[in-house]
Amino acid sequence: MYDENATGYIHWKDLDSFIDDLNKSDADFFKYNKADLEHHYLRENWISRMEFPLHNDMQEFYFYDVLNLICRHACESAFYLE
């Protein structure tokens, strides 16, 4: 759905939907701030603070970068809240 051709990249327009789908999934990535990511405008603010690097003429995010930063965020959230 997000990378049908297995390029390893996700187009910038699809990142919000990807984060929303992760937030709605059973994964614990957003366990500590699930409610903060339910609304588009809050996700947009969160995404801008994450500083995901852009590739390919500033059009795409690399999945590894996105997942790496999301995992780091989840670990830091757990650490600061516990």
Protein architecture, described:
The chain is 49% helix and 10% strand. The chain is mostly helical and 82 residues long. The protein has one domain (12-81). It has a 3-stranded antiparallel β-sheet with strand order 1-3-2. A hairpin with a 4-residue loop joins strand 2 (54-55) and strand 3 (60-62). It is globular.
Features:
82 residues, mainly alpha, 3-stranded antiparallel β-sheet, 3 strands
In brief:
The protein contains 3 helices and 3 strands; from the N terminus they run E-H-H-E-E-H.
Helical residues, percent: 40-55%
Q: Tell me the structural class.
A: mainly alpha
* Count of individual beta strands: 3
* Biggest pleated sheet: 3 strands, antiparallel
Structural topology:
Layout (H helix, E strand, L loop, with lengths): L8 E3 L3 H10 L15 H11 L3 E2 L4 E3 H19 L1
Antiparallel strand pairs: 1-3, 2-3
